[in-house]
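Q: For a teaching handout, I want to show students what a protein-ligand complex looks like in token form. Below are the inputs, and the small molecule is iron/sulfur cluster. Please produce the holo structure.
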Amino acid sequence: MACKSCVEKPVIKLPNNNVQLCKNHYIKYFEKKILKTIRQFNLVEDGDHIGVAISGGKDSSSLLYILNKLAEKRKKVKLTAITIDEGIHGYREHTLKDARKLCEELKIPLYVYSYKEEFGQTLDEALKKYKLKPCSLCGVLRRYLLNKKARELGVNKLATGHNLDDEAQSILMNQIKNNIQTSARLGPITGVKEDKRFIRRIKPLYFLTEREVATYAFLKGFVSEFIECPNSGHGLRGDVRKFLNDFEGKYPGTKHAILNSFLEIMPLLRKDYKMQEIKDCVDCGEPCSQERCQTCALLNSLK
Ligand code: SF4
Ligand SMILES: [Zn+2]
Ligand SMILES: [Zn+2]
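A: Here is the structure, written as tokens, with iron/sulfur cluster included.
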């Protein structure tokens, strides 16, 4: 069977329907879908200075490339790339190289911040010393550092490469852990405009599956090799990811259904779980909802 729109050989069959597309038509479909998400949820506005969290992996590289295309057309949008170097040996040094290469090609300034410099130790070093779940520790530190550095750089929105699979996994994980309040902070755009200490997050890849993003990144030659963090695939997220992939295979459309039903209840969740009062962390002064921010509480518990 040929491409739906021409006679060329197809490179992908789209989820949820039987449509197949060739390289050129797939690239057009992919980019159009992102621009539609940006328009639908008003993710990008004139005057925005967007920090793009780039790891050098398939998701964030595709995101940076497309946001750059948009910024070239909309001159009132400025981009700055931000990379967090957790210090994961055999992984981050490779993706960092790809991130630097892409930023140089696109002429986007890149700022790299490391756990070693900011917290005194790499993730690898911390995991050797303490019995902690890698992604729980890594996730808390990354969120903290991204928000702090984005604010210091004068960024007003932070774009992340979260795709449909990531979001469907988070929705399900919050259900499993009875953590519905956390789900109120999901969605294609998070946070409130009024509190400038928390930088709003936008997720333009929200409606694209991991497979779709990987195909695009491969066709565009963004990543030299597909390597995964050695800590990924473990814990609850790894199990939920596997479960959703199995279910998607048996019941196509599962991931989209989870996302779409979540989007229907999201306004109600946000109404019920309005942002709590924002305080200043007693240790570092960063914004938080408790007396001490999650990062300081975690780092203190390790002392
Ligand atoms: S998979 Fe886990 S440990 Fe690896 S970079 Fe992501 S959050 Fe950090
Ligand atoms: Zn075609
Ligand atoms: Zn703190």
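A: Two things your students might notice: The chain has a mean pLDDT of 91. Residues 276-303 form one domain.
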